[in-house]
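A.,

Following up on our hallway conversation. Structure tokens first:
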């Protein structure tokens, strides 16, 4: 929605509901002790509305908000995203009590907000979308670029780790091993807490640390000094790039590009060969809309690949699990903002694969495969049926142009930059 708002010149508005959970009526019978100073003998209070701390409060509030949005003309898009609501002139995105409105004209947003107030919902209007869920959003009106930064979170991470120097890259070239024989950590900081902050940061505005964070996240339990060194290296890298963030500079064409890469058994020369983790391959992919990354992921794959081609093909199948739902979501939103027939004829998806064997196998007709691919083709070729109907093609890309390379392995300084 941020990308489309920039490409199509949509108006935006952010809304925060005041003490949100207290708006929703409560269905169950819940009784609470009377507050000190107001108590009466042998009496308790019966709740009419939800309170913070009740397990049903979040669900009740969402149902209450959804009901009010439906009453004023918004339809929930449960098939693509239950938190997406679309009316004739406006799009509404909901995250708990934070709401974003997008519309071709500001007056439609103002009308929707006024109707919500008439429903008795207390809310605070904020300016156009400048920050959401801890992410600062800065727009450059001249170039059309949007920059997402999380300086506050990065400062918390750096302070928690206590790092002093900086690093040019977030991860060492060698993969991070289990190090089962290493000493126990000194416990100067909460490893799991820092990993949690890093996961939130890498998932919202810093895909450049996605691989490094994925590595250290494997060792939340049983971490060793080598893992401490790895997580501190991420902190050192962030200390030197605290003001940096994801830059979205959308193109005019409404297309999806997916860059897929895999690292075949990258832990083989690092882990003990008796450890099953040593033979697992890593998948990395980045999905872009209008040339801007929307989804990125770096993870070890469950299926054990016996060749580079198999690892690449497994990664390709894994990426399609995110590509297909995103296509439906993008089509739904596209029709809502009026790109209609032109959108349907021009919209296409391109999967960029740097392994020629995997690329050729993906383009084969159903029932056909190469002699050595039958063992994994039957498991991973499910996505073929979706390629032509959704205008999706798999093309070869040179390794030096593969954008997902940064998500599968630790790179040298020059390659990383």
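Then the amino acids I'd put at each of the 417 positions:
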């Amino acid at each position: 929605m941020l990308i489309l708002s920039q490409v199509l010149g949509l108006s935006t508005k952010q809304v925060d509901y005041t003490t949100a959970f207290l708006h929703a009526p409560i269905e169950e019978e819940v009784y609470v002790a009377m507050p000190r100073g107001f108590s009466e003998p042998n009496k308790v209070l019966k709740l009419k509305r939800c309170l913070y701390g009740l397990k049903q409060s979040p669900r009740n509030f969402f149902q209450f908000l959804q009901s009010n949005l439906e009453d004023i003309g918004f339809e929930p898009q449960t098939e693509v995203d239950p938190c997406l609501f679309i009316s004739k002139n406006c799009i509404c995105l909901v995250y708990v009590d934070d709401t974003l409105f997008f519309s071709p004209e500001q007056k439609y947003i103002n009308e929707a907000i006024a109707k919500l107030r008439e429903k008795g919902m207390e809310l605070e209007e904020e300016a156009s979308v400048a920050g959401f869920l801890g992410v600062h959003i800065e727009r450059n009106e001249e170039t059309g670029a949007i920059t997402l930064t999380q300086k506050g979170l990065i400062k918390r991470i750096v302070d928690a780790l206590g790092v002093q120097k900086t690093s040019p890259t977030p991860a060492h070239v060698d993969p991070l091993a289990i190090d089962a024989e290493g000493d126990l950590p000194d416990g100067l900081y909460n490893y799991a807490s820092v990993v949690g902050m890093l996961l939130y940061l890498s998932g919202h505005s810093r895909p450049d640390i996605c691989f490094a964070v994925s590595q250290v996240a494997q060792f939340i339990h049983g971490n060793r000094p080598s893992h401490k060194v790895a997580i501190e290296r991420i902190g050192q890298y962030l200390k030197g790039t605290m003001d940096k963030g994801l830059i979205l500079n959308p193109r005019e064409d409404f297309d999806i590009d997916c860059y897929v890469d895999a690292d075949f058994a990258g832990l083989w020369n690092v882990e003990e060969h008796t450890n099953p983790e040593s033979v697992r391959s890593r998948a990395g992919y980045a999905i872009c809309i209008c040339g801007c990354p929307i989804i990125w992921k770096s993870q070890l794959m469950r299926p054990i690949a016996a060749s580079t081609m198999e690892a690449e093909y497994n990664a390709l199948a894994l990426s399609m699990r995110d590509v297909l739902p995103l296509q439906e979501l993008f089509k739904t939103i596209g029709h809502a903002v009026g790109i209609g027939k032109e959108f349907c004829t021009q919209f296409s998806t391109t999967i960029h694969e740097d392994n020629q064997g995997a690329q050729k196998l993906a383009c084969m007709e159903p029932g056909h495969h190469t002699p050595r691919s039958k063992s994994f083709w039957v498991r991973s070729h499910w996505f073929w049926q979706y390629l032509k109907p959704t205008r999706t093609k798999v093309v070869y890309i040179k390794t030096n142009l593969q954008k997902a390379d940064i998500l599968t392995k630790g790179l040298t300084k020059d390659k990383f930059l």
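The chain has a mean pLDDT of 87. Curious whether your intuition agrees with the design.

B.
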